[in-house]
Design brief:
CATH architecture of chain A: Sandwich
CATH topology of chain A: Hypothetical Protein Tm1070, Chain: A
CATH superfamily of chain A: TM1070-like
Number of strands of chain A: 8
Helix content of chain A: under 10%
Largest interface: A-B, 34 and 35 residues
Shape of chain A: globular
Number of helices of chain A: 0
Number of domains of chain A: 1
Oligomer: homotetramer
Strand content of chain A: over 45%
């Protein structure tokens, strides 16, 4: 690809919520949020994730990497450094990268017998 | 974060609809719309929500606050000043803030036995 | 609102599809697509909807109006002038208005026993 | 339409995932991802689709065409040249066109008895 890598270096998601229970075979159908980060560029990108809450100071940064010409689908549930991501509580996310990336959030909610899905491209700004 | 707070000061959602009945344990699985507002800035933001209807003048403003470095997930169903938000009727929403915020709308529809989800980042303009 | 009306005058949706069957009480849970159009301005807006297909020339314009400070949630299924909107076939939509509006598409798919939802803010351009 | 064709020439989707099993009548309710591409212009557009993975170099380009004033709803599952699209694995997509198009991704997940839907307008950049 001759053009510059696609994307932005800062993204936000206002509505995060990881259901605290599930119904269905693990791990495919466990309730979760997946944060997909695409790096079309020719060098590895470092990503810093900060979580915002309703009643306390932000947590983070959680650091992840996305290789050159790779995508990283981060399971939010598994982030635990510097602290575990809370379940059953609303929060928001800011993603900052040292190179252009594209960020999308998808939630699988399997609290009832059948699963429900939502997905948004994050807000670039 | 050294950069300016992320977001815009005016946002719109064209499709709001709060189902008038539910199926499932309250409050987690009650049909509802959640309006998530993220404020990454270092001062509290005041938000004014105006609702637009199909057949009468707009209602509002409904006033909410979002603390510095906080997120507020507003349950639309619970807004009641200056008037309750109608159930089972289509409406639209404009969100105006006195500082940059990011706005996202999520609907949980549990009218049938299993829940359904939709979510959109609001339109910034 | 002292500021200009929010929105754009041209919007597009690439994925339209109205399922051709339903499961659940009518009309609330009939499979359908709703095209929500918000007009925050102080004069009525005229909207022209054009449908694009996979294998024939576009259909339309379908004309609808949105009053000053009103929202119009158009059931795509009910558009029939100049021709009915096809069921069970993919199509795309372009919305053109003579004033700024905000456009969102929501699909309720009730082909199986439980409903599924998707929603997108249309692409403004 | 006197105005220029609506859209952009490069789009990205960060979260692709085609469930590897289904539940429900084929082909309507088979799990799949549909990539909808709208071309409102007066000449045919050539589209190149590149897939990005978590652990290997990108695949593609997959080439598709969208006729003048037509829409093309590509079933991602059916892309097989230069190689089949993997099932049950996360990936990302970049769409490049030689004329303006609008791109939207919709996933139908029918792994459980009832279907779930998500849809996003791709990121234009």
């Amino acid at each position: 690809m001759a053009k510059a890598p696609i994307g932005h270096t800062r993204w936000a998601i206002a509505d995060n919520y990881i259901p605290s229970w599930s119904h269905g075979p693990e791990p495919e159908l466990a309730s979760h949020e997946g944060l997909s980060i695409l790096n079309t560029g020719d060098r590895e990108v470092e990503v810093r994730i900060t979580l915002y809450f309703t009643d306390r100071e932000p947590a983070g940064p959680y650091k992840v990497k996305v290789g050159a010409r790779r995508t990283n689908h981060v399971r939010m549930n598994l982030l635990d450094d510097p602290e575990p991501v809370p379940l059953g509580q609303p929060f928001s996310t800011v993603v900052e990268a040292d190179g252009p990336v594209v960020v999308q959030l998808t939630r699988l909610d399997s609290r009832q017998a059948e699963n429900a899905l939502l997905s948004v491209i994050a807000f670039a700004g």
